[in-house]
Structures are given as C-alpha cells and as structure tokens.
Write a structure and sequence with these properties.
The complex is a heterodimer of chains A (506) and B (488). Chain A has one domain. In chain A, 75% of the residues lie in helices and 3% in strands. Chain A has 20 helices and two strands. Chain A has helices at residues 4-21, 24-55, 84-103, 111-130, 134-143, 145-155, 161-193, 198-204, 211-228, 237-244, 247-272, 274-300, 305-325, 329-360, 371-374, 376-389, 396-411, 414-443, 468-486, 489-502; strands at 60-68, 73-79. Chain A has a two-stranded antiparallel sheet with strand order 1-2. Chain A starts with a helix and ends with a helix. With 488 residues, chain B is mostly helical. Chain B has one domain (13-486). Helix content of chain B is 73%, strand content 2%. In chain B, strands 1-2 form a two-stranded antiparallel ribbon. In chain B, helix 9 (238-244) packs antiparallel against helix 10, helix 13 (334-362) packs antiparallel against helix 18 (460-478) and helix 15 (382-396) runs antiparallel to helix 17. Chain B is globular and about 70 Å long. The chains are: A mainly alpha (506), B mainly alpha (488). Chains A and B meet through strand 1, helix 5, helix 6 and helix 7 of A and helix 15, helix 16, helix 17 and helix 19 of B.
Chain lengths: 506, 488
C-alpha cells in the first residue's frame, strides 16, 4: 500500500474543492497561486511515481480497495512504463497551463472557476492513466468532460459566443456518445470475464472471452476511444473545439484529453481483447492512414494558424493509431512515443499560437508575417516546434512516427506495406504544410499595406517578444522536445518492457 | 387450522404508522383553526420519520405475515425484506421532502392544509403496503391506495382551472389502467389458480394447455402497470398533469407515486411472472426503448423547467424498466434485473427530487418556472445554481454526478450481460439525447445576463428539503455502494 497514487489523483480535485468552499472573493484572490501550488505539488508526486515505475517491473505503487461492492468496482491504482510518461506529461502540461493562466486570464476572467475546472480535469486525466479497474477507468475518463465543456463554452473565443458554445456542445455530445457505447463494451468484457480488474484481465490475455464477444467489445470500446483520440472520420468535433477553446484549453485538449483515447487502446484493447484486436485493427490501420492524409491535406487549406495546428493533431494522432494498429511491439512503442511527442510539441504549438493571439488578437495567416524580424524569439520557438512536429530527426517528433512506420513494415503483409507508404506520404505532406506555414508567418514580411506589426487586440503588448511568464511556461516543453529527441531511449526504455508484456511477451 | 391469523405487527409497522399519521392530521384538522399549517405538517412529517425508523428496525432480517399454509412452503401476502426496505425508504424520504416543500406551497396556493397532508399520508400508506405486497390482490389494492389520493392532491388548487383539468386527466388514465390490470389479474388467477406471487411463479413454470390465455393475462397486467408508470405510449397525461398540479405534488408524482408503480411492476414481473419472461421481456424492451426515446426527444424542446422535468422523468422511466427488457426466457437473470431497476429507481428518486426541490424553491413568490428565468442564476444565487447543476449532472450520469453514472452502469449491465445489444445501443444514444437538454440547462444557469432579481429569503423547510436531497446525492456519489448495496 502506498498513498502516492491516491494522493496524486485526488490532490488536484481537493484543490478545486478548496476553491469552491473558499467563496467568491477569497477564491478569486487565491485561485491562481493556489492552482500553481497544487499543480506543482502534483508534478512532484508525478515525478515520484514515475521514479517508482522506473524501478519496478510491472505495476508500481499499487493500491486496491473495494469502492462499490454491489457493482464490483475497485479503486485499483497502479503505474507502469506506459502510464508514467502520460502521468508526467499531464502534470507538467497542467502546471505550464496554470503558470500561463496566472498572467493571461482569458475572457471573462473568473479565475476561481477556471482554475478549479482545470484541476478537476487534471484529477480525471491522472485517474484515467492510473486506473487498473475498467469501471474506475470509465469514471475517470468521464470526469474530464464537464470541465472541458465549461472551459470551451465559457472561456473560449470571446468574439464568437455562438460558435464557442456550439463547439463545446459538439465536443461533449460526440464524446459522451462514444463513452456510453464504450461503457457497454467495458461491461461486456467485465461481466463475461467475471472481473473488472485490468491486471487480472491482462493476465488472462483474452482467455475465457469468445472471439465474437471480443470483436463486439473491441468495436464498442474502440468507438469510445476513437472518438476521443480522434480517429478519422470521428474527428469532426476536434477542429471546432480546438479553435474555440482558450489557449490553456487547447493545450490540455491536445496534450491530455486526446492521449486518453490512445492510452485506452494500448492499456485495455490490445492486451485484454487480443483476438478482437487482430480482427479489427487492420481496419483501424486503414482509417488511421486516411486520418494522416486527411489531416495533412486539410492543413494545406487552412487560413487560421490555430485551425492548422488543430488539423495537424488529426494527422499526428493518425500516426499514433497507425502504430497501435500494427500490433507489433515496435509499432506500439512508436505509437506511445508519438503520443507523448504530440502532447509536448502540439502543446507548445498551441501555447505559441496563444502567444500570438494574446498580442495580435487573431491568428489568421493573412494577418501574420515577418515574425523573425519583429519577434525573433517567438518566431524561433515556432520554428522549433514546427520542425519538431514535422518529424525532423534529432527532435522528439521523429522517433515515434519512424517507429510506427517500421512497425507497419515488420507487420509483413503487402497491405501493411502499402499503408506504410501512404502514411509516409502523409509525413511528407506534413513537412510541406509546416514549412509553408513557417515561410508565411516567420520569414516573409507582412503585407506592407497592413503595417510592420499587426495591430494589437489581445491582452499583451503587440510589440513585445517572449515575456518571462511565457519562458517559464514554455521551457519544460522546449526542454522535453530536445532531450527526448536526442535521447529516445529515456522513454523507450520505460515503455518497451511493458509493451512486450502486453503484446504477449514476444 | 385456527380461524384467527397471527399478524406480525412489526412487519406492517411502517404503513400502520403512516396511516395513523394521516388520521391524526385529519383529527387535528377538525379541531384546530384553518391557518395553522404547521399543526398539520408536523404530525405528517413525524409519522414519516417514525415509519422510517421502523423500517430501519426491520433491516436486520426478513419477516413475513398474512401467510397461508398449503402444499409446499407457506405463501405470504406481506413480506418485509431488503426489497421492501429499499422501496419503503425511497418512498418515505421522497414523501418527507415533498412534505417539507408543501408547507409553504399550501399557504401560497391556498390549499386546504389538512386535506393535503392527510391525502399524502394515505397515498404513502399505499406505497409502503405495495412495497411489501407479495400477492396480486394486495398489490393492486395498494397501487390504488397510492393513486386515489393523488388525483385529489392534483386537483386541490380550487381556484385554478388547469388544476382540475390535470386531476381529471390523471384520474381517467389511471382508472382505465386499473380496469386493464384487474382484467389481467383475473386471467392470471384463472389460468394459474394462485394469487400469491410465489405460487403464480410456480404454476407458470409448469406447462399448461391454456398457454395463450396465460400470455394474454401477462400482457394485460403488464399493460395496466405500464399506464401507471407512464411508459410510452401511456405517457400523454404526464406533462399537463405535472404543470397543472402544485409543484410539490408534481414532485410527488414523479418520485413517490412513480416509485410505487415501478416497484409494483418489478415485483410482479420478477417475483410472480418470471417464468413467463419470454412473453413480457421483449415487450418491455420495446416499451423501455420507446419510452426513453420519446421522453428525451420531447424534453429537448421544452422551455419550462417543470415540463422539462416531466418529460425527463418519462425518459428516466424508460431507463428504470430497461433491465426488465433483458430477462431471458424462463426468468434467467431476473434477480439481477430486479436489483438494477430498483438501484436505478433509488438513485433517480434522490436526484430528481433534488431538482424538483430547487425548481420549487426558485418558483416561489410567483417567480414562475420558465427556463429563461433561470439564466444567470449562478451569479445571483450560487448555492441554488450549484445544487441544481449537480442534480442535473446526476440525472445526466456525468461526473461529478457519480450516483447517476453508477446508476447508468447498473442498468446497462443486464442488457449487455444477456446479449440484448440493440437495447444497449438505444440506451447509449439516449444517454446522449438526455445530455443535450440537461447540459443546456446547466449552461443556462452559468451564462451571462438574465433578470436582476432581489436575493430572496429561503424558508427553513425549503432550505431543509434542498439540503437533504443534496446531502443524499453527495453521499451516494462518494459511496455509491451504500445505495446499490442496499438495492441488492
């Protein structure tokens, strides 16, 4: 028994509860410092938990108590090599987001409510990544919905209230439909197998579940996870939600919420329903590749920088799904790597888009230009994030997608190799649109008719370059981009043993 | 065989106490001047509290009374077991909160206080009897005892034409339902020769030459009860009746009287007619699917809080009976379906009552129940807004409303377990349809704008009612086991 994981999962929610009972005025005053303090403590706990996961074979820091006896729900928590990176990523991104929010509070203010919702969301995400009980996983998975819905609907794009509410509602209805079907799938697995415990189910490795049952369960659970990831063609909620969300919302959506879908596939579907996965995943591979190509092509046509980054997410998550779909250890390792890489890099990209929005009020590509000249530091960071995102070797974006493609090659059949070629073409297109974006935004001078610097319109001085609080909130992500790019074994050493276990000890 | 029966008084203590309460209220009403509302309310609330205590005293074991010996095990008409306890507690807690809310409504709507509280207590007596009823006749008589006083309660607002219309509507529908039920019950008796649920089940398990008559009997009884529970297509009376009735009475209809109807249906099907599940389970699956879908689709378009809650309670009835649609032939899985239905019912009762309480309190002083009037409530009255939002999220089944989420988990179990996949899919779609309007309402509470009302003074009884429901919803969200464990 160890109190680390329960504390890790519940500390943010406790912080939110504290803000609720603090009352309006006091809560407003203490919200931002309290938020950063709680997120900082949570990050420390996450580091501690990750350390334990590194040292332990199997699950570290396990806790298992009965929560709802009548329904067989256990509060069973644990952390291992594939959950630890995501736990750490979640904690760091929330901390970065709250540091950022300290300085730039999106319209209409109300720091107490915003910080409280972010903390509840963090609890839900950490719970999802540490749950070892199917129903507990479901509860945690659902916990992030209402906070994110509020964040987009209330603090989203202040210029277009109808669009932001529409985007928030589309997001929650899509996801809720997915998760209601997923609940049916989880119940099917748990009731037929006689346990909801993921460690027991993983040990069974599909024994005791008929192949037909497994296929139905994979389809039902996969639907819920695929909506969240999102997989083409279920991604249509994503661009709207990303575009309408405030900066911190976009960062958490990309870096935390999307990861919950792919994590669920690796944690639940691959080890617990192997026969079903073998039957269904080739199709997942096809849809993933369509998503990669669709995301890339859509990016080529975007006029808004934020929308472009949002669509690039569809492509990147396509790579993650593609790696998982190969069902090879290499492919899944690659997928998990790309998962983290996407969280780091796209999180950074959304932060930078937010920086531009805070200065210029809008990030329409036609209004931007010449960043290298006017804002060299923001321009440089944007270039770094963009080339990391397109998969330049030596940065974090490279390894995951390379390994995912390698996994497809190793899967052996002609079909997988064709898919690999198509996915590779998607990677080329990704390079194309990111470089075009960089040329437009950073290298080319701005349209001379519009003046040398766009007019202000955000809360920050349009002439200022990166400020101190931005350095503070971006630097962990920049660091991760470079370090994980140069030393991929740091992460692969964590995930690989677990992946081999989950795929049947190959 | 002795001619006098020995009666276990403790087993029947809860309904006896509430009936005594009703009589005390009536007697006091004759003696005391008209204006003293509390003198009528307190005895009623006290009797409810005593009845709840007696339920808890019964919690340790199972007691049965009004038994007849016979071939095989004796058959009993009244049993106080876990099921009786859960239904009884739901009824008592619901009635207690309705009673609290009524104290001010009686004054505001100029209702005759004595009649109102006495009628409610008679109806509660019926519901408690129904919870323990284990034979067909007791079941039907108890169900009528629940509903007869309700017609009068709906129509007590004498100066309001809508009130009378609402009462007439619910009366006519209910009488038709009763007639059908009694016809079905007669056929059941005719084809099985038994009135006790256990003996009916035993008889139905044997093959019979009158199989068609048996099937007809089962269908008629189910249809009759479906009327009472307002299952589609027998739901038409609900919205007008809810809006025409005084608000606490609408809450009573949506929680206590619905709980009684559902309990009756569940008891009858799972204990008495389980061997004939092949006949009724597919029917109930279709009825449940239709009920939740129709209720949700109509709820999506409502602009009035009470009408919205009325339609949402139609939809929720669909979820409550859904597990019954997944009982296999011969009654396989009947116990788990029963536990799922009762568990969902208990969770629904707590949170729906909470939502009704907040709406009732907010509608005081002629504020009305239009949804538009609740815009921006979060700024004006943060406590009421947070409480209402919590109840609505519980009804929607989303965290932090965990009691609702686990209730959904509970009712999804039987259809998934027994492979009625299409019903599970319809339920999943309906969860999302429900979200559509619950979330729109939550969004409204916390959006900008809205009327600039003076902060109101919330009465003690009103505040207590909301606080009790909120405490229940919060406790059962943290410890859902307390609720679902009790329900089996």
């Amino acid at each position: 028994m160890s109190a680390v994981l329960p504390l890790l999962d519940l500390l943010p929610a406790a912080g939110a509860l504290g803000l609720l009972v603090a009352g309006r005025e006091r809560g407003e005053r203490i919200a931002r410092p309290l938020g950063v303090a709680v997120a900082g403590l949570t990050t420390l706990l996450a580091v501690l938990a990750t350390g334990a996961a590194v040292r332990t074979r199997g699950f570290a820091l396990q806790v298992d108590t009965v929560w709802v006896r009548a329904l067989g729900v256990h509060a069973h928590l644990g952390i291992d090599g594939i959950s630890a990176p995501l736990v750490l990523l979640t904690a760091v991104l929330v901390l970065c987001g709250l540091v950022y929010t300290w300085r730039v509070l999106p319209e209409p203010g109300r720091a107490r409510e915003l910080v409280g919702l972010i903390l509840v969301l963090e609890s839900g995400a950490l719970g999802t990544f540490t749950a070892l009980d199917l129903l507990l996983f479901f509860v945690a998975f659902e916990t992030v919905l209402v906070p994110m819905w509020f964040i987009v609907a209330v603090w989203g794009d202040p210029h277009d209230p109808v669009a932001r509410r529409g985007a928030a509602t589309t997001f929650i209805l899509y996801t809720a439909l997915g998760s209601a079907v997923m609940l049916a799938g989880l119940l099917l697995v748990g009731l037929r197998a006689g346990t909801f415990d993921m460690t027991a189910l993983t040990a069974m490795h599909g024994a005791g579940l008929a192949a037909g049952t497994q296929v139905v369960a994979v389809l039902a659970i996969g639907l819920g996870l695929a909506v969240k990831t999102p997989m083409w063609p279920l991604h249509t909620w994503l661009p709207g939600a990303h575009t309408a969300a405030p900066t911190v919302g976009s960062v958490l959506l990309a870096g935390v919420l999307l990861k919950m879908g792919t994590y669920g596939l690796v944690r639940i579907v691959v080890p617990i329903l192997p026969a079903g996965a073998r039957a269904v995943f080739p199709w997942l591979g096809v849809l993933a590749v369509v998503g990669i190509l669709h995301g890339a092509l859509a990016c080529l046509g975007q006029r808004d920088l934020k929308r472009l980054v949002a669509y690039s997410s569809v492509g990147h998550m396509g790579f993650v799904l593609f790696g998982i779909a190969t069902l090879t250890p290499v492919g899944i390792n690659g997928a998990l790597y790309a998962n983290v890489a996407h969280g780091v890099v796209t999180g950074l990209l959304f932060f930078l888009v937010g920086s531009l929005k805070d200065r210029f009020g809008s990030v329409e590509l036609s209004r931007l230009g010449g960043l290298y000249a006017t804002h060299p530091r923001i321009g440089g960071l944007l270039a770094l994030a963009a080339v990391a995102s397109l998969g330049l070797p030596g940065l974090v974006g490279f390894w995951g997608e390379m390994l995912a493609l390698l996994g497809a090659y190793q899967a052996g059949t002609l079909g997988w190799r064709l898919l690999m070629v198509a996915a590779g073409a998607g990677a080329v297109l990704t390079t194309l649109y990111f470089l075009r974006m960089l040329r437009r935004v950073a290298q080319q001078p701005r349209d001379p008719l519009a003046g040398s610097v766009p007019p202000g319109g955000g809360p920050l001085d349009p002439r200022s370059d990166v400020t101190g609080f931005e350095v503070a909130s971006f630097s962990p992500l920049v660091l991760a981009t470079v370090v994980l790019g140069l030393a991929p074994w740091v992460l692969l050493g964590l995930t690989d043993p677990v992946v081999r276990l989950l795929t049947g000890g190959a | 065989m002795s001619l006098t029966q020995s009666v276990d008084l403790l087993a029947i203590a809860p309904p006896m106490l509430t009936m005594l309460g009703a009589l005390v209220v009536l007697a006091l009403d004759l003696l005391l001047p008209r204006g003293l509302v509390l003198a009528r309310a307190l005895p009623a609330l006290g009797a409810l509290g005593l009845a709840a205590l007696s339920e808890l005293a019964l919690a340790s074991g199972t007691r049965a009374t009004f038994c007849v010996p016979g071939p095989g095990a004796p058959a009993c008409s009244f049993v106080a077991d876990r099921l009786t306890l859960v239904i009884g507690l739901v009824v008592l807690a619901g009635a207690f909160i309705v009673g609290l809310l009524s104290t001010r409504t009686v004054v505001e709507d100029n209702l005759p206080a004595g009649e109102h509280f006495a009628l409610m207590m008679f109806s509660v007596t019926g519901a408690l009897t129904l919870a323990g009823a284990r034979d067909l006749l007791t079941l039907i008589v108890a169900l009528e005892t629940v509903s007869l006083p309700v017609y009068a309660m709906v129509g007590l607002r004498r100066d309001d034409r809508r009130s009378g219309e609402a009462a007439l509507k619910v009366f006519l529908v209910s009488v038709a339902a009763t007639a059908v039920t009694i016809l079905g019950a007669a056929l059941v008796y005719g084809t099985t020769g038994a009135v006790h649920l256990s003996r009916i089940a035993a008889a139905l398990a044997q093959p019979s030459p009158a199989a068609d008559a048996r099937a007809l009997a089962v269908v008629l009884v189910v249809a009759g009860f479906a009327f009472k529970v307002a299952v589609v297509p027998f739901h038409g009376w609900v919205p007008d009746t809810y809006t025409g009735a005084p608000l606490p009475v609408a809450a009573y209809l949506s929680v206590v009287s619905k709980a009684a109807g559902v309990a009756g249906l569940v008891l009858l099907l799972d204990l008495g007619l389980a061997p004939a599940a092949g006949t009724w389970s597919p029917i109930l699956a279709v009825l449940a699917a239709a009920t939740m879908t129709v209720g949700n689709i109509f709820a999506l378009r409502q602009g009035d809080a009470v009408r919205l809650l009325a339609w949402s309670s139609v939809a929720q009835a669909g979820f409550i009976v859904a597990p019954l649609g997944a009982v296999g032939a011969g009654g396989r899985g009947a116990p788990s379906a029963l536990a799922a239905s009762i568990g969902y019912l208990a969770a629904y009762a707590v949170v729906n009552l909470g939502a009704f309480s907040v709406v009732t309190v907010l509608a005081r002083d002629g504020a009305g129940t239009a949804l538009a009037g609740l815009r921006g409530l979060g700024r004006r009255e943060p406590f009421a807004a947070v409480a209402l939002a919590f109840f609505l999220l519980c009804l929607a089944g989303l965290p932090p409303g965990l009691v609702g989420l686990f209730a959904k988990v509970r009712v999804f179990g039987p259809p998934v377990q027994s492979g009625v996949g299409w019903l599970a899919v319809v339920m999943a779609v309906n969860v999302v349809l429900g979200l559509g309007y619950y979330l729109r309402w939550v969004a409204l509470l916390f959006s900008r704008g809205g009327p600039d009302a003076q902060p109101r003074r919330v009465g003690t009884a009103d505040g207590l009612a909301v606080a009790l429901a909120l405490a229940g919803a919060v406790v059962f969200s943290v410890l859902p086991g307390a609720l679902f464990g009790l329900a089996g």
